[in-house]
């Protein structure tokens, strides 16, 4: 019971238990984290992370206070100090520093001479460690940030693919005939063009215009399937085709052989797309459509008086602007994966000739093309630059083409009944996790400050178990200062300094010299007035 009731023995046990737990805790936290660049990341809400750090700091600071007697006893053994000799004021300051660990009184005790200075420096070391732990805690609080990380969750298989009609021909009755493309489902085509369709999604990318299935209704980290890719390009050819205003309602053009001898009058129609890559065989009544698809596009706008148009925009006699574009449309089917809003695709194959033919018909469907031309008119008037205008029209033309083609010839499949046959397609549910990012430097500083000083102080505590004399001496040092005064001045009354403040007591014992030691198993204190 003697040992169990001693604050020194309790400090030794608490110090080693704490050191072991802190080390295990540090290893566990390190294993639970991952390093990304110069940051350490935990899948933990930043508020909870900082609460754990704050609790750890307070616990370690409390442990340091509880271990103080054991640390002082260990230092007495290491320095072979069995007797404290000095003035009463000096010993009083040491006692006050060991109890309160106030910065000012501890600093005063460190400047005293004699054997008490070593113990004062030990007390100051523990005090500095406590402040250092608090500063490293503050640094970690200031630098740790919370972020919401989107992570992949459960994989849901689904045959997400596009079913493209195969019987596209010159017939009046098939799914995607010349006479039915974009005409039977204009509302659906417009939805796809505006990207408001429930089943299809148009994706504009640097490498072209994609037709994909609409994203899953569930918030998804990633989804995949098959789609159609159109790679459009347009260039102004007004000067190449000798487009000029002649007289009256004549603004003629005549293109060279490289452009299939295309010719006409821009004033004959407001807008026209003349597909020039179809080869018609009247004997077999078949049409072969080349890939890429080529077209000569005629566009007319009203003129903006304040805009300086480049020479590719030709002014007609009646005040309108006309421009010719040579456009190409390369088509293919692709496999795609969309991950957190980023699209990646790989080639899958080409459209069949009949599908390519139907796409060519869709590229010249008047209502959809008129919408595309209207949507880029402001670029012509705002810039007057035919190159910028041609590039913008290419994207809108491809979007209008794929919208018209998809409204009749393409069906989305695989999700009608909530499940499909897989085939490698499907979607991955999104899981949003709160994460804490802290600089690696802040984490290392905090871990070192928490772990190693506590381990060193625990080792010092072990030496306190070697000598009972030092136990008695340290327990006297860690006794309230008022008891020191009572030990030095036995006779006193209610009106003397024993009942007053510690500072008054310090004045009374200022000139007292005392010698504290152990003789024949008893603690002895002698004084000289």
From TrEMBL:
The keyword Transmembrane applies. This is Uncharacterized protein. Keywords: Membrane, Transmembrane, Transmembrane helix. The chain crosses the membrane at residues 12-35, 55-78, 118-140, 443-465. It comes from Rhizophagus irregularis.
């Amino acid at each position: 019971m003697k040992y169990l009731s001693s604050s020194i023995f309790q400090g030794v046990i608490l110090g080693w238990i704490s050191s072991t737990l802190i080390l295990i805790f540090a290893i566990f936290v390190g294993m639970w984290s991952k390093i990304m660049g110069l940051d350490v990341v935990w899948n933990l809400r930043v508020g909870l992370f900082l609460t754990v750090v704050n609790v750890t700091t307070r616990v370690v600071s409390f442990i340091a206070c509880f271990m103080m007697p054991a640390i002082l006893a260990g230092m007495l053994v290491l320095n072979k100090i069995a007797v404290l000799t000095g003035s009463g004021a000096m010993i009083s300051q040491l006692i006050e520093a060991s109890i309160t660990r106030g910065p000012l009184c501890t600093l005063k005790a460190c400047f005293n001479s004699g054997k008490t200075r070593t113990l004062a420096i030990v007390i100051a070391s523990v005090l500095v460690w406590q402040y250092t732990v608090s500063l490293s805690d503050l640094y970690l609080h200031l630098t740790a940030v919370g972020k919401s990380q989107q992570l992949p969750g459960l994989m849901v298989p689904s045959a997400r693919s596009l079913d493209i009609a195969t019987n596209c021909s010159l017939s009046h009755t098939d799914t995607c005939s010349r006479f039915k493309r974009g005409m039977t489902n204009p509302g659906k085509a417009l939805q796809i063009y505006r990207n408001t369709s429930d089943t299809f999604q148009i994706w504009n990318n640097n490498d072209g215009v994609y037709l994909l299935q609409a994203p899953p209704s569930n918030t998804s980290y990633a989804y995949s399937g098959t789609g159609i890719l159109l790679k459009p390009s347009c260039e102004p050819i007004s000067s190449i085709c000798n487009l000029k205003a002649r007289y009256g309602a004549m603004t003629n053009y005549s293109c060279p052989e490289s452009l299939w001898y295309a010719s006409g009058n821009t004033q004959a129609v407001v807008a026209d797309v003349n597909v020039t890559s179809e080869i018609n065989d009247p004997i077999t009544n078949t049409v072969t459509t080349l890939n890429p698809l080529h077209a000569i596009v005629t566009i007319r706008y009203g003129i903006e008086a304040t805009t300086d148009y480049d020479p590719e925009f030709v002014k007609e006699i009646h005040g309108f602007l006309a421009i010719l574009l040579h456009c190409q449309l390369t088509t293919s089917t692709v496999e795609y994966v969309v991950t957190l809003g980023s699209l990646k695709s790989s080639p899958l194959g080409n459209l069949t000739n009949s599908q390519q033919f139907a796409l060519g018909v869709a590229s010249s469907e008047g209502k959809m093309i008129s919408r595309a031309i209207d949507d880029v008119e402001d670029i012509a008037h705002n810039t007057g630059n035919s190159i910028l205008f041609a590039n913008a029209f290419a994207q809108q033309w491809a979007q209008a083409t794929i919208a018209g083609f998809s409204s009749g010839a393409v069906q989305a499949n695989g999700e009608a009944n909530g499940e499909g046959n897989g085939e490698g397609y499907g979607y991955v549910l999104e899981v949003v996790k709160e994460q804490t990012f802290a600089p690696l430097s802040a984490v290392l500083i905090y871990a070192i400050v928490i772990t190693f000083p506590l381990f060193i102080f625990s080792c010092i505590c072990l030496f306190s178990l070697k000598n009972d004399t030092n136990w008695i001496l340290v327990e006297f040092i860690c006794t309230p200062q008022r008891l020191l005064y009572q030990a030095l001045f036995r006779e006193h009354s209610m009106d003397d300094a024993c009942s007053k403040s510690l500072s008054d007591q310090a004045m009374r014992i200022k000139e007292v010299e005392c010698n504290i030691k152990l003789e024949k198993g008893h603690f002895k204190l002698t004084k000289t007035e």
